[in-house]
Design goal:
Layout (H helix, E strand, L loop, with lengths): L3 H7 L2 E9 L3 E6 L4 E7 L1 E2 L6 E6 L2 E6 L4 E7 L1 E2 L6 E6 L2 E6 L4 E7 L1 E2 L6 E6 L2 E6 L4 E4 L4 E2 L6 E6 L2 E6 L4 E7 L1 E6 L2 E6 L2 E6 L4 E7 L1 E2 L10 E5 L2 E5 L5 E7 L1 E2 L7 E6 L2 E6 L4 E7 L1 E2 L7 E5 L2 E5 L5 E7 L1 E2 L6 E6 L2 E6 L4 E7 L1 E2 L6 E6 L2 E6 L4 E7 L1 E2 L6 E6 L2 E6 L4 E7 L1 E4 L5 E5 L2 E5 L5 E4 L7 E6 L2
Antiparallel strand pairs: 1-2, 1-52, 2-3, 4-5, 5-6, 6-7, 8-9, 9-10, 10-11, 12-13, 13-14, 14-15, 16-17, 17-18, 18-19, 20-21, 21-22, 22-23, 24-25, 25-26, 26-27, 28-29, 29-30, 30-31, 32-33, 33-34, 34-35, 36-37, 37-38, 38-39, 40-41, 41-42, 42-43, 44-45, 45-46, 46-47, 48-49, 49-50, 50-51
Length: about 475
């Protein structure tokens, strides 16, 4: 049987935790709490691109994942690596080093941005321009503001208006826009005269500035989003193509399983990705499809239709949820239960509140307390908690008597409810506070570090070569 060190080595990655103590000491441990590098610093940070910022004395530098010093601790401040470069500060001026520890740009600048597309914006004595990976001036600029490149373009400002230049310094889009931002791959949204449109990286206008709103821009447009014009809504895809014209009173934020909800003449129905009405607008309310079924409301009651528009579960429920893991929540007479895709009641309507199933379990509320049931309606743990959350990676966070902990899929409290607050990470680690003491705990409930600085302690996944 391999020992714990061999097991870590067999993985494609390992987790390294940067622990910072309140009194000014920092060190690194792995996910089992074993000390790494046999070194201690005044401050440490998580690894990015294989390098971590560390502080010795009052100066910063960088080490690699073997604990070797790549950039000596000679800088007054330093930032994390991005695209192979890091910004460093000395004598109140900024410069750049690369991941080999070489000085790319000396510390002479008032400000330096991150490298992207081989270029970084800098400011020196109120002059703004771009430098290349050798530290040479690559693009002189006479703009009021310049930002980092993204997908070959960088936003610039002249006379309070935005435009874009390419990596050759050529103005691809003139400075005529009031606002701008990233839309999706190869596209940017722009605002002109109070209206929104789209441009691409080639200097072309993809959609003219005629739209009142692009709903959900702050959440990104990787799958497209609704647009609004003259109080009517439609849908634009991630390529900037109008897939649904602005003719509806309402539309869902996204397509789901090939369908979007639309509202016309006060009623709701569904269209497909070709903007064809597949299910006529005859319902009082609807929700998006999930696992082949969509909730619909008629005469103040809810039921379900399939993708052919056939009512497969009649509208008899006061409220319903979407299908998830083959079950959907239903409400009758003020209580919640669950049905399967055939409409059979699997869990009777006896609960004051329910969640949606995740990893085979859902939270339920009874007598003002929460517990969990499985997909058969069997109780995983009784309703004894003040609040509960969904299962993720085999654990669910729970609150009891104002304190937080975690249970596993056996209903066991692997992390007892003794913590005031917590932060969980995708690597299966929990950062928790108990009074004035902070701890890092793994998913087995083992405390692997404690008494650290909450804000400065973090971890990262590191690939093993």
């Amino acid at each position: 049987m391999a020992n714990s060190n061999e097991q870590v080595a067999e993985q494609a990655f390992k987790v390294i935790i940067a622990v910072n103590m309140p009194h000014g000491a920092g060190y690194f441990v792995d996910s089992e709490g074993r000390f790494l590098f046999k070194k201690q610093f005044e401050e440490v940070s998580q690894f990015t691109e294989g390098l971590a910022r560390v502080k010795q004395g009052d100066k910063y530098g960088y080490i690699n994942t073997n604990g070797e010093m790549v950039v000596s601790c000679t800088y007054d401040d330093a930032r994390q690596f991005f695209n192979g470069f890091a910004r460093v500060k000395q004598n109140d001026r900024w410069g750049v080093v690369n991941n080999k520890g070489e000085v790319v740009a000396p510390c002479i600048y008032d400000a330096v941005g991150r490298f992207s597309d081989g270029l970084a914006p800098v400011r020196l004595n109120d002059k703004r321009y771009f430098i290349n990976a050798n530290g040479d001036k690559a693009i002189p600029c006479s703009n009021e503001m310049i930002e980092e490149f993204f997908e070959g373009l960088a936003p610039v400002v002249q006379n309070g208006k935005y435009g874009y230049i390419n990596t050759n310094g050529e103005k691809v889009h003139p400075c005529i826009y009031e606002k701008t931002g990233r839309f999706s791959e190869g596209l940017y949204w722009v605002k002109k005269n109070g209206k929104l449109g789209l441009i691409n990286t080639w200097g072309e206008i993809v959609q003219p500035c005629i739209y009142d709103e692009m709903l959900g821009l702050d959440c990104g447009a990787a799958f497209g989003l609704p647009i609004k014009q003259n109080d009517k809504v439609g849908f634009i895809n991630a390529k900037g193509e109008i897939v649904v014209p602005c003719i509806y009173e309402g539309i869902s934020r996204t397509f789901s399983e090939g369908f979007a909800c639309v509202k016309q003449n006060g009623k709701w129905g569904f269209i497909n990705t070709k903007a064809e009405i597949i299910i006529p607008c005859t319902y009082d309310a609807v929700n998006i499809y999930s696992e082949g079924f969509a909730p619909v409301k008629q005469s103040d009651k809810w039921g379900y239709i399939n993708t052919r528009g056939e009512v497969v579960i009649s509208c008899t429920y006061d409220e319903v949820g979407q299908f998830n893991e083959g079950l959907a929540a239903i409400k009758q007479n003020g209580k919640w239960g669950f049905i399967n895709t055939k409409g059979k009641v699997v869990v009777r309507c006896i609960y004051g509140e329910v969640g949606c199933f995740s990893e085979g379990f859902t939270r339920v509320k009874e007598n003002d307390k929460y517990g969990y049931i499985n997909t058969k309606g069997e109780m995983l743990c009784p309703c004894i908690y003040d609040f509960t959350w969904c299962f993720s990676e085999g654990l669910a966070s729970v609150t009891k008597n104002g304190k937080n902990g975690f249970i596993n899929t056996k209903g066991e409290e692997v992390i007892p409810c003794i913590y005031d607050n917590f932060l969980r990470d995708s690597e299966g680690l929990v950062k928790a506070r108990q009074g004035d003491t902070y701890s890092i705990i793994n998913k087995e409930g083992k405390v692997i570090a404690e008494a650290f600085d909450w804000e400065l302690t973090s971890w990262s996944r590191v690939d093993i070569e």
